[in-house]
Amino acid sequence: MEQYKEEFIEFMVDSQVLKFGEFTLKSGRKSPFFMNAGAYVTGAQLKKLGEYYAKAIHDNFGDDFDVLFGPAYKGIPLSVATVIAYSELYGREIRYCSNRKEIKDHGDVGILLGSSLSEGDRVVIIEDVTTSGKSIEEVYPIIMAQGKVEIKGLMVSLNRMEKGPGGVMSALDEIKEKYGIDANAIVTMQDVIEYLYNRPVKGKIYFDDTIKAAIDKYYETYGA
Predict the structure, then answer these.
(1) Closest-CA residue to 86 (of 116, 112, 124)
(2) Which of 58-62, 164-168, 169-173 has maximum average pLDDT?
(3) Is the sign of the CA dihedral 73, 172, 9, 56 positive or negative?
């Protein structure tokens, strides 16, 4: 596993973004782990988060894209932090773009926030985590309505590796099949399990035998 991925796993738990215990998800599932990217709240955290995303996006897409699109609302700070990091790390100016939940009819009018999308633009979508693909369902037609643009792929921070709404494949695989776009994550839950199991982070064990047993049981039912 690449060093930045190992660092990212430690970063998630140290920032209390990835937690272990018992959580009820929006889907109603009882999950032994939960991720909330909204817990990245400081300047230092957002700077590091942007760097991890930028490295993963560069690994998967190189410089073969022009715009980073962050679905409202959580995708907005993610896209901004990541284009800043991309500029600093790779010396390439990537534009950021997002959608508005409501169309603005005065001043900077329209459905888009940040950069406009032009014919020929190559777009990567950025999200925190995808469990249902709902946000992609919302923004895909918005992006494609802007003209002849190409969606190169999707980058999320964590692949939960569980069945999506279709009940067979993971949510990321469902997105790949439905939209024909390359869907990736900085790390997968398998990466997390392999790296974090009984390994201390700043002197604390977050992932012990009890948590591993709970996750193994969860994946017996919901694993993709």
Answers:
(1) 124
(2) 58-62
(3) negative
More confident residue, 107 or 35: 35
Name the one residue in this structure whose structure tokens are 């024909």. 180
Q: State both tokens at 109.
A: 């009018």
Per DSSP, helices labelled H in the chain are: 3-14, 43-61, 75-90, 134-144, 171-179, 189-196, 209-222
* Average of per-residue pLDDT across 199-203: 95
Question: What's the token pair of residue 200?
Answer: 């201390």
CB 66 within 8 A of CB 121: yes
3-class DSSP assignment, residue 148: coil
Q: Give the pair of three-digit tokens for residue 2.
A: 């690449």
What is the distance of C-alpha 176 from the center of its chain? 15
Active-site amino acid positions: 104, 106
Q: In the block, which residue shows the tokens 């003209």? A: 147
Tokens of 205: 């064990």
Residues in the chain: 224
Query: In terms of pLDDT, which residue wins out, 59 or 134?
Result: 59
What's the pLDDT score for residue 106?
A: 53
Nearest to 130 by CA among 155, 96, 166: 155
Cα 164 → chain centroid: 15
Q: Which of 159, 220, 218 is nearest to 190 (CA)?
A: 159
Instruction: Please indicate whether residue 79 or residue 130 has the higher confidence score (pLDDT).
Output: 79
**DSSP letter assigned to residue 146:** T
